[in-house]
C-alpha cells in the first residue's frame, strides 16, 4: 500500500509580479516502511517537495495523499494531529524552540497528545543519543550536533509512521553528520518507519530503497536499491 | 559667524550617510513609531497642563479687574476699622475714588410661609458694585436698576430648591424681600462649585433690616475702590496700608489680589503636573525599552558593517541623528497632542472653569515643549546608545548576547542622567521641597515595584507546572528580548497610583458620605450670640455641647512675627488665616494630651494655651513656647501648656487652640454647637430655629458633604484621566516588546504548529502569557496600593480602612482584559503565519 502519494503536483511561487515554478508535474508514491532519498542541486525543489509531501505546504495544482487521504485541501488545524502523531520532522536548521530545554523540546509533541509518559520517553531517547547529561540545557547552550540529536529525538518521540528529514547534516561537520545519519537509519530500521531523506551524502543514498533526483522541479532520475535506472 | 556655522553644518552633513539613516528608520518603522509615541507621550500631559495653566492664568489676569470688580480691594474678616473707612471717605470726597461696600456671609433663608428653608450665600452690596465686569441677569436688565431696596436677585438653584419664582418673597434674616431677577453670571465669582448654598444679592440699604451681622459673625467684609486715575492706585494702597492693621486687613490692587479660583487652579494644576511628570518618567522607561529593542534589531547590521570597516563613531553619530529625527517627530507630535488635550481638559473642567477662559497656544509653551522633548530624548536615550560601542564584529559569529560593562564611567554617566532628571523635575515643578519629596516617593515606588517584580518573576521561573499551555506561556515571559520587567514595573507603578486614588476616594466616600457615622452630628449651628444661648438651647430641645468661639489671628510665635505672605503661599494649612479659639477646662471625649500633664499647668501664672498637634504640621512648637494672638486688634500672648491630639478622626468639632475658661470669657464671641437631628426633623427644625434666631446659620453637614463629594468625584475623574496616560506608557512597552520579540514569537508559533499544535494552542499560549503579565502587574499594583492607601487612610486621614475587595477584583479584571487585548492585537498576524513561509525564509538565510 502507498503511504504517501503525490499526483501531478506542481508548485509555483509568486514573488512580486514574477511566477517562479519550483515543481513541475511531479507524481510519486512512497510505500510503508520505505527509505527514500531525494537528491538534487540547490534550487531543484527538494525542500519544496518535502514540504508538500508532509502537508506543510499546499501544491498549486495536483494532489497529495497520505494513507489514501487527500491532504491538499485539509484545513491547517485538521493537519495538526497528522503532524503530531504520524509525521516527524528533522530540519537542516534544527528548529528547536529556543525558550525550551532539550528535554522540553523533545517532550513537547508527546505532551500535545497528552502522553503521560512523555518525560520518561524523552529521557530514554536523549540518553540513547548520548545527551543524558544535557537534558536541561537550552538550545543555545548546545553544539550543532547536539541540537540535531535533540531535534531527531523530538521527531521520534511519538513513534511516527513517516520521518521527513531535510538535509539533517547540512549544518554539521562530517563526523557529526555521519553520526546523525546513522542514528536516523537505526531508528528507521528499528521502528520500520518510512523515511524521506533529503541528502547529498552518497554513502547514505546507496543505502536507501530508492533515490530520486530532482532537476529544475522535475524528477529526472529514479534509482532503486538494485541501482536499476528507471528513467 | 554665519559662514563658520554653515561650514560646520556642511562638514557634518558631508560625513553623514543619508541612505543608511533612512534605511535604519524604514526597516524598523514599527519600533520607530513606538519610540516616537513614547517621546510624545512623555511630554503630552505636561504640555497640555502648562498650556492649560497659562490659558487659565491669562484669562484670569486679562480680566483681573472684572475678577475683582475693582481697582483696589480691601478685605477683612472683621468690620473695617474707622481709620480705613475714614480714609476711604476722604478719598471719595476728594473725587479720587468711588467705593462700594460688600458683605458676604452664609445664612438660612425661608420662604414667605415658613414652609421651607435653605442655607444661602448672601452678598450684600452697595449701589456702585461691580465697578468692572458685568452681572448678567436673566431679564437682561441692568444690575443696578434691579437691585433696589426691598428686592433681591437670586440664583436659579435657590428657586428650584425652594420651588419659588421671580416675584415671590423670601425671609432673609428679619426682612421679607422680593425676588426680582435671576443671576446668570457674576464677574468676581466665575465659578461656584465650592459654594455651600445658592447665591442671593441684597442691597446694603437692607443690611440693617436683615439684622444678621452681629458681633463675631462670620462675615467677609470688603470695600471695593474704583480709582479715577490709574497712576494713583499704588499710592492709594500705600496710604491705606499706613492706617490699616495689616494682620486683619488685606489691601490689594486688582493685579496683586489672589482669587480663590486662581489659588484652586494653581494647586490642582500643580498636583496634575506631578502626575504629568510621573507619566514622563514611565514614558522615559518606555523610550529606553523601545530604543534598546530598536538597537537590538540593528546589532547584526552594525556587527557586519564593523567587519567591513565602519567605526563605532560612525554608528554613534548616525544613531544620534536618527534618534534626533525621531525625537523631534515625537516632540512635535507631543506638542500638537498637548494642545489637543488642552481642549479635552476644557471639557473635563466644565463647571469648574471660569466661562471666559480662552485656550491659547503660546510660543513659550511650544519652546518649553521642544526643550522638554530634547531633554527627555537625551536623558533616556543616552544609555542604550552607549551600548553601540560594545558591539564587536565577532558578534555575527557568536551566540551570546552583548553585555554592557557597568564600569565607573558608565555609573558616572548614569548618575549624571539621574541628576539631570532631578533638575528637569525641579524645573517643571519650580518647588524644591515638593520636588524632592516627589522624586523620593516615585523612586521608592519604582524601586519597590522593581524588587517585587524581580522576586515574583524569580518564583514564576522556578515554578514547576504540569499543564503544557501554562508552562509554555510562563516560558514566554522569559523569552530573550522580552521586556517583561520594564512592562511589569511600568504597569505596576502606574496602576498603583490609579488604584490608590480609587481606594482612597472610595474610603473617604464610605466614611463620610455613604455611611455617615450614626452618632455623628449632622447639623452645625454657628454664630449663636451668647445672649441667645439659653433660649436657643430650649428651642433646640435636645442635649448639646456648646462651644464658645473667639476669632483671632496669630501675630507672632516666640516673639517672631508671622510672615503672612509666605504663610499664604503654603499649599496646606497656614498660620496667616483666622483661627477659632475656644475656652474650657476639660478635654473633649476624643482628645488626649500627648505633651504636658494637664490641659493647663497650675504652677504657671501667666496666660496658657493648649495646642492641637495638627498645628505642628504647619510649624513645630513646644511646651513653653509663646504665641501672640490678636483678637480684633487686641494682642493676647499665651504660653503653650500642653499639646493634644484627637484619638479618632470623626465629624466632631475640634479646636486648634484651647484657653482656660477665665481667660477669654469676656472676649467678643459667638457660640457654636453640633447636634444630630433625625432626617424627618431637619427641615422643620432649621426653619423653626432660623425663624426665631435669624442670625444663626444652620449647616446641614450631610448636604455639604454631598456637595464636596460631587466636587471630589469630578476632581478624582480628572486625576484618573491623567494617570491613564502613564498606563499608555506600559501599553507602548508591551507593543514594543512584542515587536522586538516578533521573530521569536513567530518562530515559536511555527514550531508548535509543525510539531502538531493547533492554532488555538498557540493562541492560548499567547493569551496566557499576556494574562500573566496583566495579573502580575495588577496583582502587585493592588498589593502596593492597598498598603499605601491603608497607610494614608489610617495614618494621615485617620479614617477606618476598607479594602473594597470586590471592586478591586473588577479593577484587576478590567486591567487584565486590557493587557490581554493589547498583547494579542499585534500577535494576530503572528498567529496567522504559515509555517512553510517562515521555514523557507530561514532556509534562505
Descriptive report:
The complex is a heterodimer of chains A (231) and B (845). With 231 residues, chain A is an alpha/beta fold. Chain A has one domain (33-58, 76-224): Rossmann fold (3-Layer(aba) Sandwich), CATH 3.40.50. Chain A has seven helices and ten strands. Chain A has a six-stranded mixed beta sheet. Chain A is globular and about 45 Å long. The relative contact order of chain A is 0.18. Chain B has four domains: 21-64 and 262-430, no CATH class; 71-253, no CATH class; 453-520 and 679-845, no CATH class; 543-676, no CATH class. The longest helix of chain B has 48 residues, at 260-307. By secondary structure, chain B is of the alpha+beta class. In chain B, 54% of the residues lie in helices and 16% in strands. Chain B is elongated. Chain B contains 26 helices and 21 strands. In chain B, α3 (29-62) packs antiparallel against α12, α14 packs across α16 (484-514) and α16 crosses α23. The A-B interface holds A 47, 51, 56-57, 76-77, 80-85, 89, 91-93, 95-100, 108-109, 111-113, 140, 154, 158 and B 399-400, 468, 472, 475-476, 478-480, 744, 747-748, 750-761, 834-836, 839-840, 842-843.
What distinguishing features does this structure have?
heterodimer, A: 231 residues, alpha/beta, Rossmann fold, six-stranded mixed beta sheet, four-stranded antiparallel beta sheet, 7 helices, B: 845 residues, alpha+beta, six-stranded mixed barrel, six-stranded mixed β-barrel, 26 helices, elongated
Largest sheet of chain A: 6 strands, mixed
CATH class membership of chain A: Alpha Beta
The strands making up the biggest β-sheet of chain B line up spatially as: 2-3-8-5-7-6
Number of strands of chain A: 10
Count of runs of 4 or more consecutive helical residues of chain B: 26
Average pLDDT rating of chain B: 82
- Trace the largest sheet of chain A across and list its strands: 6-7-8-3-9-10
Oligomeric state, counting identical vs distinct chains: heterodimer
Which protein chains are joined by the largest interface, and how many residues does each one contribute?
A-B, 30 and 31 residues
Amino-to-carboxy terminus distance of chain A: 23 Å
Any idea what the shape of chain A is? globular
CATH level 3 topology of chain A: Rossmann fold
SS strand fraction of chain A? 25-35%
Instruction: Please compute the radius of gyration of chain B using only Cα atoms.
Output: 33 Å
Domain tally of chain A: 1
Name of the CATH homologous superfamily of chain A: P-loop containing nucleotide triphosphate hydrolases
Helix and strand content put the structural class of chain B at alpha+beta
What is the straight-line distance between the termini of chain B? 53 Å
Helix content of chain A: 25-40%
Amino acid at each position: 500500500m502507498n503511504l504517501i502519494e503525490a499526483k501531478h503536483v506542481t508548485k509555483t511561487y509568486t514573488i512580486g509580479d514574477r511566477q517562479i515554478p519550483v515543481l513541475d508535474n511531479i507524481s510519486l508514491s512512497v510505500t510503508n516502511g520505505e527509505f527514500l532519498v531525494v537528491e538534487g542541486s540547490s534550487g531543484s525543489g527538494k525542500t519544496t517537495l518535502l514540504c508538500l509531501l508532509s502537508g506543510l505546504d499546499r501544491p498549486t495544482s495536483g494532489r497529495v495523499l497520505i494513507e489514501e487521504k487527500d491532504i491538499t485541501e485539509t484545513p491547517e488545524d485538521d493537519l495538526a494531529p497528522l503532524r503530531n502523531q504520524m509525521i516527524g520532522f528533522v530540519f537542516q536548521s534544527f528548529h528547536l524552540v529556543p525558550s525550551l530545554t532539550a528535554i522540553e523540546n523533545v517532550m513537547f509533541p508527546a505532551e500535545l497528545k497528552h502522553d503521560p509518559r512523555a518525560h520518561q520517553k524523552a529521557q530514554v531517547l536523549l540518553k540513547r543519543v548520548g545527551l543524558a547529561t544535557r537534558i536541561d540545557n537550552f538550545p543555545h547552550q548546545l553544539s550543532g550536533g547536539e541540537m540535531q540529536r535533540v531535534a531527531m529525538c523530538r521527531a521520534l518521540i511519538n513513534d511516527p509512521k513517516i520521518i521527513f528529514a531535510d538535509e539533517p547534516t547540512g549544518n554539521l561537520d562530517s563526523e557529526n553528520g555521519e553520526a546523525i545519519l546513522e542514528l536516523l537509519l537505526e531508528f528507521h530500521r528499528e521502528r520500520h518507519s518510512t523515511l524521506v531523506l533529503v541528502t547529498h551524502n552518497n554513502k547514505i543514498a546507496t543505502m536507501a530503497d530508492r533515490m530520486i533526483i530532482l532537476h529544475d522541479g522535475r524528477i529526472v532520475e529514479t534509482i532503486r536499491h538494485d541501482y536499476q535506472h528507471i528513467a | 559667524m554665519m559662514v563658520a556655522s554653515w561650514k560646520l553644518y556642511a562638514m557634518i552633513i558631508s560625513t553623514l550617510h543619508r541612505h543608511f539613516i533612512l534605511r535604519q528608520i524604514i526597516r524598523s518603522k514599527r519600533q520607530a513609531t513606538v519610540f516616537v509615541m513614547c517621546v510624545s507621550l512623555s511630554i503630552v500631559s505636561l504640555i497640555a497642563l502648562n498650556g492649560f495653566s497659562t490659558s487659565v492664568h491669562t484669562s484670569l489676569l486679562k480680566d483681573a479687574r472684572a475678577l475683582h470688580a475693582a481697582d483696589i480691594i480691601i478685605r477683612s474678616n472683621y468690620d473695617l476699622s474707622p481709620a480705613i473707612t475714614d480714609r476711604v471717605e476722604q478719598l471719595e470726597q476728594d473725587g479720587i475714588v468711588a467705593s462700594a461696600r460688600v458683605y458676604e456671609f452664609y445664612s438660612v433663608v425661608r420662604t414667605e410661609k415658613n414652609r421651607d428653608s435653605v442655607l444661602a450665600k448672601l452678598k450684600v452690596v452697595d449701589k456702585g458694585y461691580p465697578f468692572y465686569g458685568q452681572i448678567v441677569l436673566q431679564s437682561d436688565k441692568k444690575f443696578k436698576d434691579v437691585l433696589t431696596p426691598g428686592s433681591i436677585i437670586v440664583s436659579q438653584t435657590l428657586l428650584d430648591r425652594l420651588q419659588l419664582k421671580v416675584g415671590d418673597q423670601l425671609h432673609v434674616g428679619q426682612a421679607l424681600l422680593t425676588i426680582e431677577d435671576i443671576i446668570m453670571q457674576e464677574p468676581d465669582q466665575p465659578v461656584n462649585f465650592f459654594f455651600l448654598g445658592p447665591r442671593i444679592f441684597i442691597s446694603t440699604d437692607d443690611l440693617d433690616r436683615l439684622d444678621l451681622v452681629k458681633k463675631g459673625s462670620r462675615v467677609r467684609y470688603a470695600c471695593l475702590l474704583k480709582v479715577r486715575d490709574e497712576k494713583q492706585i499704588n499710592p492709594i494702597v500705600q496710604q491705606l496700608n499706613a492706617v490699616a492693621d495689616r494682620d486683619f486687613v488685606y489691601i490689594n490692587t486688582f493685579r496683586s489680589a489672589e482669587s480663590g479660583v486662581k489659588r484652586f487652579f494653581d494647586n490642582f494644576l500643580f498636583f496634575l503636573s506631578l502626575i504629568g511628570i510621573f507619566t514622563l518618567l514611565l514614558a522615559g522607561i518606555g523610550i529606553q525599552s523601545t530604543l534598546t529593542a530598536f538597537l537590538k534589531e540593528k546589532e547584526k547590521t552594525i556587527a557586519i558593517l564593523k567587519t567591513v570597516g565602519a567605526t563605532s563613531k560612525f554608528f554613534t553619530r548616525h544613531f544620534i541623528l536618527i534618534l534626533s529625527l525621531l525625537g523631534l517627530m515625537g516632540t512635535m507630535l507631543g506638542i500638537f497632542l498637548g494642545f489637543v488635550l488642552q481642549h479635552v481638559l476644557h471639557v473635563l473642567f466644565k463647571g469648574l472653569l471660569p466661562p471666559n477662559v480662552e485656550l491659547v497656544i503660546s510660543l513659550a509653551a511650544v519652546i518649553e515643549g521642544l526643550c522638554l522633548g530634547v531633554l527627555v530624548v537625551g536623558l533616556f536615550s543616552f544609555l542604550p546608545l552607549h551600548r553601540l560601542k560594545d558591539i564587536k564584529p565577532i558578534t555575527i559569529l557568536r551566540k551570546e548576547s552583548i553585555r554592557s560593562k557597568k564600569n565607573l564611567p558608565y555609573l558616572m554617566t548614569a548618575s549624571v542622567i539621574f541628576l539631570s532628571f532631578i533638575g528637569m523635575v525641579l524645573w517643571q515643578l519650580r518647588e524644591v521641597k515638593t520636588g524632592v519629596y516627589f522624586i523620593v516617593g516615585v523612586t521608592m515606588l519604582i524601586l519597590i515595584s522593581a524588587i517585587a517584580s524581580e522576586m515574583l518573576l524569580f518564583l514564576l521561573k522556578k515554578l514547576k507546572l504540569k499543564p503544557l499551555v501554562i508552562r509554555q506561556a510562563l516560558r514566554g515571559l522569559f523569552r530573550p528580548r522580552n521586556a517583561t520587567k520594564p512592562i511589569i514595573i511600568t504597569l505596576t507603578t502606574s496602576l498603583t497610583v490609579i488604584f490608590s486614588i480609587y481606594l482612597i476616594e472610595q474610603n473617604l466616600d464610605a466614611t463620610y458620605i455613604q455611611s455617615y457615622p450614626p452618632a455623628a452630628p449632622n447639623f452645625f449651628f454657628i454664630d449663636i450670640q451668647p445672649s441667645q444661648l439659653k433660649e436657643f438651647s430650649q428651642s433646640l430641645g435636645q442635649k448639646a455641647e456648646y462651644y464658645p468661639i473667639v476669632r483671632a489671628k496669630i501675630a507672632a510665635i516666640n516673639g517672631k512675627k508671622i510672615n503672612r505672605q509666605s504663610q499664604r503661599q503654603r499649599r496646606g494649612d497656614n498660620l496667616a488665616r483666622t483661627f477659632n479659639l475656644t475656652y474650657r477646662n476639660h478635654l473633649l471625649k476624643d482628645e488626649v494630651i500627648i505633651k504636658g500633664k494637664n490641659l493647663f499647668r497650675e504652677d504657671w501664672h501667666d496666660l496658657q494655651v493648649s495646642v492641637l498637634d495638627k498645628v505642628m504640621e504647619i510649624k513645630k512648637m513646644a511646651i513653653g513656647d509663646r504665641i501672640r494672638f490678636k483678637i480684633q486688634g487686641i494682642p493676647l500672648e499665651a504660653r503653650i501648656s500642653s499639646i493634644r491630639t484627637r484619638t479618632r478622626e470623626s465629624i466632631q468639632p475640634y479646636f486648634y487652640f484651647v484657653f482656660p475658661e477665665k481667660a477669654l470669657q469676656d472676649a467678643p464671641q459667638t457660640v457654636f454647637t453640633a447636634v444630630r437631628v433625625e432626617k424627618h426633623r431637619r427641615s422643620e427644625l432649621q426653619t423653626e430655629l432660623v425663624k426665631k434666631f435669624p442670625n444663626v446659620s444652620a449647616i446641614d453637614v450631610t448636604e455639604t458633604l454631598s456637595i464636596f463629594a460631587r466636587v471630589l468625584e469630578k476632581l478624582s475623574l480628572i486625576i484618573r484621566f491623567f494617570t491613564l496616560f502613564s498606563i499608555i506608557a506600559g501599553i507602548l512597552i508591551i507593543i514594543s516588546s512584542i515587536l522586538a520579540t516578533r521573530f521569536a514569537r513567530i518562530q515559536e508559533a511555527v514550531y508548535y504548529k509543525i510539531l502538531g499544535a493547533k492554532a488555538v494552542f498557540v493562541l492560548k499560549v499567547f493569551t496566557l502569557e499576556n494574562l500573566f503579565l496583566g495579573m502580575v502587574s495588577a496583582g502587585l499594583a493592588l498589593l502596593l496600593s492597598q498598603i499605601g492607601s491603608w497607610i494614608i487612610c489610617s495614618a494621615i486621614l485617620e479614617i477606618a480602612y476598607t479594602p473594597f475587595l470586590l471592586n478591586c477584583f473588577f479593577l484587576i479584571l478590567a486591567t487584565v482584559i486590557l493587557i490581554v487585548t493589547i498583547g494579542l492585537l499585534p500577535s494576530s498576524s503572528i498567529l496567522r503565519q504559515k509555517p512553510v513561509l517562515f521555514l523557507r525564509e530561514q532556509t534562505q538565510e
